[in-house]
Design goal:
mainly alpha; WH-like_DNA-bd_sf; flat
């Protein structure tokens, strides 16, 4: 089955139809609203065929997805199985996490400073930061600084 695209809002469809009614072409409408020409053409054609702008009601089954960003996979799967009395598939749990914005991604690692970067940083600090400022900084060995990588992976 092909993936379902996002529906345009009724306000946007009304704007498209009114611009077309005022004599603008598909390309001008698509440039003005920043959507594709095919989308503009389909909206106008559906209005001509059906005579309405609103989306049709779909008889889909209700979604088992709950909107809560703080949930993770295994507790969510356990809770769904205990509430419904039946086990949900792993794919349903993944979809629910994706809809909440949790994709299990690891953020991109920040590149290390090269030998070319270090002198330029030092010259910038010497040029723009006064010596009195450095005298006010307290240097202690309580701060742990990792030179290359972090201690753990944080998921986004």
């Amino acid at each position: 089955m092909a993936p379902k695209g996002k529906d345009l809002s009724e306000d946007l469809k009304k704007i498209i139809f009114n611009l077309h009614k005022n004599g603008l072409g598909y390309k001008l409408i698509s440039k003005r609203i920043h959507i594709s020409v095919n989308t503009v053409a389909k909206v106008i054609q559906k209005h001509k065929d059906a005579g309405r702008i609103s989306n049709r009601h779909r008889s889909d089954r209700p979604s088992n997805v709950m909107e809560d960003r703080s949930r993770t996979g295994s507790p969510l799967a356990q809770e769904v199985s205990s509430l419904n009395g039946k086990s949900e598939s792993v794919q349903t749990v993944r979809r629910s996490l994706n809809q909440c914005g949790l994709h299990g991604c690891i953020p991109r690692r920040k590149p290390l400073l090269t030998t070319r970067h270090k002198p330029s940083h030092l010259s910038f600090a010497e040029t723009y930061v006064r010596k009195e400022f450095w005298n006010t900084i307290l240097c202690s060995d309580e701060t742990k600084i990792n030179l290359f990588r972090s201690n753990g992976i944080k998921r986004v």
